[in-house]
Amino acid sequence: MPKLWNETIEAHRGAVQDAILDTAAALVAEHGMLSVTMSQIAQEAGIGRATLYKYFPNVESVLRAQHDRQLAGHLEHLAAVTHSGGDAGHQLEAVLHIHAMMTFEHHGSAIASVMHLEGARQTQLAFVSDVLRRAAEAGAIRDDMAPEELASYCVHALAAAAESPSKAAVSRLVQLTLESLRPRA
Question: How far apart are CA 165 and CA 36, in angstroms?
Fold first, then answer.
């Protein structure tokens, strides 16, 4: 097949998949995760059910794909922060703040329920571990614990952001977490 044809087909498939995922997210936000059906998704996305089933076998797979897309977007945002320069300590602060704000903003949402999936948690911990490793190597944080242990600590500590009353409280929680990571005298 000609290159242009392949690119056109791939663009169309990508657009259909994005429409499915956007529609599913909107339906979950409006009706709740448990009430969304494949028929609703197909109808709202403007495609036939048979087409929907070519892309996804069930609602759970649609929601996982939506979560993966959203997680990838968050990780791209976090990666941009870590690659934007500055010292490792400031990068760590920015990453923890973004993570805490995502937790605060998505508390009680469908994304929060899916975040507990093992793959997502492992991706999140690996990313935070990497940032912590660089911060420890730069002397910005303590180095007497493995970065993986500190990442688990940070992610669990910042989970409290879900119950914070305000963004200011989330910022204080991030500062408290950062204080606990400071190098020991």
Answer: 30
- The span from the CA of 96 to the CA of 178, in Å, is 8
Contacts of 58 (CB under 8 A, 6+ apart): 38
| CATH number belonging to the domain at 1-57, selected among 1.10.10.1100, 3.30.70.980, 2.170.150.20, 1.10.10.60 | 1.10.10.60
31 pLDDT above the threshold of 70 = yes
Q: For 15-27, how does the pLDDT look when each residue is reduced to its tens digit (9 = 90+)?
A: 999 999 999 999 9
What is the C-alpha separation between 123 and 76, in angstroms, rounded?
12
Show the tokens assigned to 39: 């028929």
Instruction: Give 106-157 pLDDT, tens digit per residue.
Output: 766 555 555 455 566 788 888 899 999 999 999 999 999 999 999 999 999 9
| Spatial contact of 105 and 88, defined as CB atoms under 8 Å apart | no
Predicted confidence at residue 109, as pLDDT, reads 57
Q: Which CATH number fits domain 60-185: 1.10.357.10, 3.80.30.20, 3.40.190.10, 1.25.10.10?
A: 1.10.357.10
Q: What is the DSSP letter of 56?
A: -
